[in-house]
Design goal:
By secondary structure, the protein is mainly α. Helices cover 64% and strands 9% of the residues. It contains nine helices and four strands, in the order ααββαβαααααβα. The longest helix is centred in the middle third of the chain and has 28 residues.
């Protein structure tokens, strides 16, 4: 047991350092607070746009966690190390920590809400999260939130249509098997691109990643 604990602590330290988990803690906390306090609330309007029907808060909360996913691609200033399987695994675990926290918050919101919104929330999280991860990996962390806002704005401005094939229905409607398959593919591609990180020939990381 004495030997296993230090190893586990070093592994946890590597997972945290290899990604931007520290940087997105405020976003994760914001998502948790909104979920706990406003889980049963609805959004009646957004600026000059009035929603009819009203949009559940828990349908839009995944946007916060999606931005956190994109921002968690950040790196800290440190010596450059070459990419290797160990680094990719550690990055995957770092992203997984953010995903688990987000899914846990969405489950909490569903548990506290009078109506079930977990599946639509997960659908939105996979859609926006996958896009944010890919954008952050390809264009940089500072730009990861932009396609999320564009997609959300497009859904808000699109005609109200409950069809699962419509832009509005993909974000604000009830989740269908077809939609889950589509967003699942988007999330898989986004996560794969983020883990591979093709934009960077190396990684700005501390040397302890190689020895921890």
């Amino acid at each position: 047991m004495y030997l296993r604990v230090p190893v586990a602590l070093r592994a946890a330290r590597v997972i945290v350092r290899v990604g931007g988990l520290y940087d997105v803690i405020p976003l994760l906390v914001l998502g948790l607070v909104v979920t706990a306090v406003y889980h049963s609330g609805t959004i009646d309007e957004l600026g000059p746009i009035t929603f009819e029907p009203k949009i559940p808060v828990m349908v839009l909360v995944p946007v916060i966690f999606a931005v956190a996913c994109g921002a968690s691609h950040g790196t800290a200033t440190s010596p450059v190390i070459v990419r290797c399987a160990r680094v990719h695994v550690a990055r995957a675990m770092s992203f997984l920590c953010v995903v688990v926290i987000a899914l846990g918050a969405l489950w909490l919101g569903d548990y506290l809400s009078a109506t079930s919104v977990f599946v639509p929330s997960v659908r939105n999280f996979m859609l926006f999260g996958g896009v944010a991860l890919a954008a952050a990996a390809l264009a940089g962390v500072a730009y990861g939130w932009i396609p999320v806002v564009v997609l959300l704005g497009g859904a808000v401005l699109s005609p109200i249509d409950d069809s699962p094939f419509s832009f509005y229905g993909l974000v604000f409607g009830n989740a269908t098997t077809f939609q889950l398959c589509v967003v699942g593919l988007v999330a898989t591609v986004g996560l794969t691109v983020a883990i591979w990180d093709p934009r960077s020939p190396g990684y700005l990381r501390r040397s302890t990643i190689l020895t921890a």
